[in-house]
């Protein structure tokens, strides 16, 4: 396999950039006219790529093999897959393309490591997790650069993700020491009743591309803290950040086999994890369709399952909202990560009295957003992850406009080409349009008009999803009423970004099962054992 790959690849890429001989993935290529109109962005990006490559090489963070039992490993048949920079279409690395065999070995390593890891003291696990946290923070810049390179998010946002992602490891290090049991007053005088909390066992953690670090740490942190070991399967679109994080886990002294990483053939890896009776838990973040498959597949061996699936977040702006706060919150809730998060506002419900004023203020703010390569200065919106993502945005927007919605700003691919899309605001949207029923997962803000508080709640809850929701109002009473009525796992009131490692994150309805982060997230990796001690009086 191309072990020598990426560093060289990045360097040659930089050299080739001036002659425009970049390796591009055909599926990332924009239409011909856009290739011609793309500004001379490639030279700057490749310069960045070169310096990033050398920095990453120095810190040993550029990994392309899987991690099995503490050893970096190629795929057994030597196959690789390419990882692309969505801002340029350039290939940035060839990584091991693994399948069922490698996954079975990773499970065996995790099972082996579980025997000793589950017996360590909470203090030992806490210390190692804390070391891992320190290393993640010490390498914040490299991790963020890697993320911008493979995922496209602006560097500042990527730095924020390192803080957020590392936060789960820090929190888990602290919480490891607080996995308390219980003593229950016995119903008979010669008995004592105890409740112990014990690790669930080997965990299969499957993660998406939109938060290449945080979706892993929010699973692996609590799993390790509880005494579980893990097999991670990151997204094939963004494996480099996951591999760098795993390298730092090794450097922190987390024992061989406690953290394994395999990537490549997703269904094969998934099937191996599901089939194994040794894997006792599946934790997944991703699409609802794949989540349902994993849930069904877990039935055969009755695994514990946590799912964080798609959302369809309403963002409700009441007439009595502070317009500046509402616009600021909506911008953050909608356009963060170019609209590619499962808690991104998907439907912006605006009360009729404030609709025109809010729409104008939102458009003015969105117009000022700078789109570009995530390494560019002041860029707040990067490219979408791939061509399929742009096509989905186009399809949903086309459906909406064909049914009467009006594009108020943007509404087309950005002149930068590739997968860049103009930040868009579309008005006169209604609940029958696909854009109101499916996640657009792009920088499009659909505005829906409503009359009363009851209308807003009814429209907001009229979906199978129930993850993030947002409310903007200056009324304390209304904020409580609406927060209680929303069938959602998360409610932001006068705030557009509410995720934090200290609070429980998860969905109602088909948005998932279980919670991540906070003390509640720890329980997902624990079994409850009841111990009854009898015959106390005999001696
Ligand atoms: P998204 O559309 O956000 O990429 P997916 O659900 O397709 O969401 O992907 C989330 C994660 O699930 C990725 O790591 C992907 O490779 C993985 N995945 C996709 N299909 C399967 C499958 N059949 N079994 C296990 N994992 C899968």
Annotated CATH homologous superfamily of the largest domain: Aldehyde Dehydrogenase, Chain A, domain 1
CATH architecture of the largest domain: 3-Layer(aba) Sandwich
State the distance separating the first and last CA atoms. Answer: 67 Å
**Rg over C-alpha atoms, rounded to the nearest angstrom:** 24 Å
Q: Number of helix segments?
A: 18
Strand content: 15-25%
Tell me, briefly, the overall form: globular
Structural class: alpha/beta
> Average pLDDT across residues?
91
Strand ordering within the main sheet: 14-15-16-13-12-17-18
Number of domains as seen in the coordinates: 2
Tell me the major beta sheet: 7 strands, mixed
Tell how many strands the DSSP assignment holds: 20
Are any ligands bound, and if so which? adenosine-5'-diphosphate
Q: In percent, how helical is the residue content?
A: 40-55%
Q: In the CATH scheme, what's the topology name of the largest domain?
A: Aldehyde Dehydrogenase, Chain A, domain 1
Give the low-pLDDT segments: 1-45
The CATH C-level class name of the largest domain: Alpha Beta
């Amino acid at each position: 396999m191309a072990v020598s790959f990426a560093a060289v690849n990045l360097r040659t890429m930089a050299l080739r950039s001036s002659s425009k001989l970049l390796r591009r993935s055909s599926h990332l290529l924009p239409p011909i006219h856009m290739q011609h109109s793309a500004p001379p962005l490639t030279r700057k990006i490749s310069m960045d790529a070169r310096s990033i490559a050398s920095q990453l090489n120095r810190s040993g963070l550029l990994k392309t093999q899987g991690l099995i039992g503490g050893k970096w490993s190629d795929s057994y048949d030597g196959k690789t897959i390419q990882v692309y920079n969505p801002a340029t279409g350039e290939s940035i690395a060839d990584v091991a393309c693994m399948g069922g065999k490698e996954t079975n070995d990773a499970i065996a390593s995790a099972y082996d490591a579980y025997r000793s890891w589950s017996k360590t003291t909470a203090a030992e696990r806490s210390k190692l997790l804390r070391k891992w946290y320190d290393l993640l923070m010490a390498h914040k810049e490299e991790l963020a650069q890697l993320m911008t390179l493979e995922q496209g998010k602006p560097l500042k946002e990527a730095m924020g993700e390192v803080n957020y992602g590392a936060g789960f490891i820090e929190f888990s290090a602290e919480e490891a020491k607080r996995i308390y049991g219980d003593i229950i007053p016995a119903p008979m005088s010669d008995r004592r009743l105890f409740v112990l909390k014990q690790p669930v066992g080997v965990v299969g953690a499957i993660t998406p591309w939109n938060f290449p670090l945080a979706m892993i740490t929010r699973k692996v942190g609590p799993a390790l803290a509880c005494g579980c070991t893990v097999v991670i399967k990151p997204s094939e679109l963004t494996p480099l950040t996951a591999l760098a994080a795993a390298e730092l886990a090794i450097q922190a002294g987390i024992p061989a086999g406690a953290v394994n990483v395999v990537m490549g053939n997703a269904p094969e890896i998934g099937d191996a994890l599901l089939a194994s009776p040794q894997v006792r838990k599946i934790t997944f973040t991703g699409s609802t369709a794949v989540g349902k498959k994993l849930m069904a597949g877990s039935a055969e061996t009755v695994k514990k399952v946590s799912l964080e699936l798609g959302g369809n977040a309403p963002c409700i702006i009441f007439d009595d909202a502070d317009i500046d706060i509402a616009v600021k919150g909506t911008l953050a809730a909608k356009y963060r990560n170019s609209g590619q998060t499962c808690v991104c506002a998907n439907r912006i419900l605006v009360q009729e009295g404030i609709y025109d004023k809010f729409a104008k203020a939102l458009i003015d703010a969105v117009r000022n957003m700078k789109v570009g390569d995530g390494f560019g200065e002041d860029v707040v919106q990067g490219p979408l992850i791939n061509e399929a993502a742009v096509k989905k945005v186009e399809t949903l927007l086309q459906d909406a406009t064909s049914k009467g919605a009006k594009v108020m700003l943007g509404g087309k691919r950005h002149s930068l080409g590739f997968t860049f899309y103009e930040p868009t605001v579309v008005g006169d949207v209604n609940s029958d349009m696909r854009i109101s029923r499916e996640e657009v997962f792009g920088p499009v803000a659909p505005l829906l008009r409503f009359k009363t508080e009851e209308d807003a709640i009814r429209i907001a809850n009229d979906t199978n999803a129930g993850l993030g929701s947002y409310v903007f109002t200056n009324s304390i009473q209304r904020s409580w009423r609406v927060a209680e009525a929303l069938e959602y796992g998360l409610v932001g009131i006068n705030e557009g970004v509410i995720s934090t490692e200290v609070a429980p994150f998860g969905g109602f309805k088909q948005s998932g099962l279980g919670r991540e982060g906070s003390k509640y997230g720890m329980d997902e990796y624990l079994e409850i054992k009841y111990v009854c001690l009898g015959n106390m009086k005999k001696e």
